[in-house]
Design brief:
This protein has 616 residues and is of the alpha+beta class. It has two domains: 2-298, no CATH class; 313-615, P-loop containing nucleotide triphosphate hydrolases (Rossmann fold), CATH 3.40.50.300. It is built from 19 helices and 28 strands. Strands 2, 3, 4, 5, 6, 7, 9, 10, 11, 12 and 13 form an eleven-stranded antiparallel sheet that branches. Strands 18-21-17-22-25-16-26-27-28 form a nine-stranded mixed sheet, with helices on both faces. A hairpin with a 2-residue loop joins strand 2 and strand 3. Helix 1 crosses helix 5 (145-163) and helix 12 packs antiparallel against helix 15 (507-517).
């Protein structure tokens, strides 16, 4: 094999990386990339995690996954990412259909899977490989052994042409070289997050692992413990073995063998170095590094989850690795979303930026604007502007609506005319005009009511009720065509009552709940914007299609931490957030910072949101 490795190294170094030959082969209903020389079956899936966990925070998920897989000695799993595409590979020597089904079923508890198949390219190594292999023959006259070496290399060159192909896709440039990840739990908890960050920033990364017999670790510990020679290397081996044994006993970790791969070198405990053999190693049952299951926390296996979009998308910003974070607008599981953020952190600015992007994609944008934050946006997207209460949509058709009647009762009013008169009096307007809004973009400017919180709450509730009622009468399909944005949605809670079950209830809140039960079938979405999670009912926040929590001081995040299940890393990111004005200091581009949570999967992204200066 040494000769074969020499030929592989020379060809991959001088010309092009090689990978083992693989052909298509079926195992029951599954299709594998089969390596006939090593008798290995590679089953692959395009994969996206359904949960987000990073660094040591992923340890409990990795523990569950590894225990459920119950890998056999000649089986291995590989997680790898090439650009934006993520994959999982299950490798075995003699799998049956039921075993592959078990692995796939278990993986589906943690990932959304799409079957994939990756055979080798048809390109054989160039024939000049023979000339390179025969090079030692030049020294045959001086040393006859050189001729034997040349003959041996020619044989291996022939084997290489037969059993290897030039790697067209999925090439790795570096692989881990350390033989032992023996380290304390404290060190793992300290460095795993940093290593996972470094791995995720690579254009390509991967990790392949297989089980390692526990007896082998016990044997190493015994050998080091019973060594009669007291020297530094023996002490180090004993210390490492002790730390691993302690982790196994305390955290129930299991011994594994792994190899890490990347597109660049990484100076860490993994010791990833440039290697012409990295691509070939990825497809072989060789592992270079001994470790334990929680060492897989060093890789971003469960970070994010960006499924291929099936429709229009909204680019929210970039994640911690400067990769775009998008929301698939046509696949939102619910009809509403929530944006939370303390004053000054760019909440309205971010929403205006998103609204302009929505308008550019042909969606109608309706904005209820208590403070005039969206007036510039209205000009940019050509929106109608209603000066409320000078101008109001036609409310007469709603006078018998049960939600409108409940709303009027909450404000101590009897009829729609009473509500219009109350708004006019608050703004000192003689006679409000009734105008039918168009089917395009509309901004309702409520600045005339900004000094009267009760009147503002009434106006916001009436306008939202008008649009929700209109939307629920739609029959032309569920494709999203309109987004209704309510800024300062805390106004909806102003006259809410708390029921016996502890739920905030009002006419308009109950209508929102009724609307969201219908899912996306009405073709419209509601975005509720508020400063704090305390300003909206818990159930409405929990059931949102997405929640964007912007940064701010810890005291402003107390409710969000509990309600959104934010972990320590999320909180650290939010508390360290800078304001948009700070980011724009010195000519920089303004951005907001937050954590985006997507449903129905528990996916979280720390995001930086570029803000559009023209809408401010």
């Amino acid at each position: 094999m040494l000769g074969e490795w020499l030929v592989l190294y020379a060809y991959s170094r001088l010309w092009w990386p090689l990978e083992p030959y693989r052909e298509k082969k079926k195992v029951g209903k599954y299709v594998a990339a089969y390596d006939p020389r090593r008798k290995l079956y590679h089953f692959m899936w395009r994969a996206e995690p359904v949960i987000t966990a990073f660094g040591i925070g992923a340890s409990h998920i990795i523990h569950e996954l590894y225990a459920g897989l119950a890998l056999k000695p000649e089986e291995s799993i590989a997680f790898f990412q090439l650009g934006k595409a993520r994959y999982i590979r299950y490798t075995a020597r003699a799998p049956d259909e039921s075993r592959v089904m078990h692995v796939e079923t278990l993986l589906r508890e943690y990932f959304v899977l799409y079957p994939a198949m990756w055979v080798s390219s048809p390109v054989k190594p160039n024939r000049w490989i023979y000339a390179v292999a025969a090079a030692p023959a030049v020294f045959a006259l001086a040393n006859p052994a050189a001729l034997l070496a040349a003959l041996a290399l020619l044989y291996h060159a022939n084997q290489t042409r037969k059993w290897y192909r030039e790697a067209v896709a999925g090439r790795f440039e570096a692989a881990s070289t350390t033989r032992d990840l023996g380290t304390s739990r404290q060190a793992l908890e300290t460095y795993s997050r940093a290593e996972a960050l470094a791995m995720a920033r690579m254009a390509k990364w991967g990790v392949a692992f297989s089980p390692r017999p526990e007896a082998a670790l016990a044997k190493e510990y015994k050998r080091a413990y019973e060594s009669p020679v007291e020297k530094a290397s023996t002490t180090i081996k004993l210390r490492r073995a002790s730390e691993l044994m302690e982790r196994m006993l305390t955290y129930d970790e299991r011994p594994i063998q792994l190899t890490a791969f990347g597109s660049s070198e990484l100076s860490s405990q993994l010791e990833i170095k440039k290697s012409p053999l990295a691509t070939a190693l990825f497809w072989m049952p060789l592992t270079t590094t001994k470790g334990l299951t929680h060492d897989l926390c060093r890789f971003p296996v469960f970070y994010g989850g960006n499924l291929p979009a099936i429709g229009r998308t909204l680019e929210v910003g970039v994640d911690r690795f400067d990769r775009p974070v998008t929301i698939d607008l046509d696949a939102m599981p619910a009809a509403h979303a929530v944006v939370l953020g303390p004053s000054g952190m760019g909440k309205s600015w971010a929403v205006a930026t998103f609204a302009r992007k929505l308008a550019a994609q042909g969606l109608s944008v309706i904005i209820v604007d208590p403070h005039g934050d969206y007036v510039k946006l209205a000009k940019l997207i050509g929106a109608e502007v209603f000066q409320v209460p000078k101008e109001l949509p036609p409310l007469k058709p709603l006078e018998d609506n049960r939600y409108m009647l409940a709303l009027l009762s909450e404000f101590g009013l009897s009829t729609v005319e009473d509500a219009v008169a109350a708004l006019a009096a608050a703004a000192k307007v003689d006679k409000p005009a009734e105008r039918m809004p168009g089917t395009g973009h509309v901004v309702y400017d409520l600045r005339m009511l900004k000094h009267d919180a009760d009147a503002s709450a009434l106006a916001v509730s009436i306008i939202l009720l008008y649009y929700l009622t209109t939307a629920m009468e739609r029959t032309e399909g569920e494709r999203l065509s309109r987004v209704v944005i309510v800024d300062e949605a805390a106004l909806l809670m102003r006259h809410a009552r708390i029921t016996e079950t502890g739920v905030a209830s009002s006419g308009v809140l109950d209508l929102i709940r009724q609307y969201t039960l219908g899912g996306r079938k009405y073709g419209a979405a509601i975005w509720l914007i508020a400063q704090l999670a305390d300003h909206l009912p818990d159930d409405i926040i929990k059931s949102a299609a997405f929640v964007l929590q912007l940064g701010g001081p810890g005291r402003a995040l107390t409710r969000s931490i509990h309600l959104l299940a934010l972990d320590e890393a999320d909180v650290d990111y939010l508390v360290s957030a800078t304001t948009p004005r700070e980011t724009a200091t010195g000519g920089g581009k303004p951005y907001a910072m937050g954590v985006l949570l997507l449903s129905p999967r528990h996916i979280k992204y720390p995001v930086k949101i570029p803000l559009d200066p023209e809408v401010k």
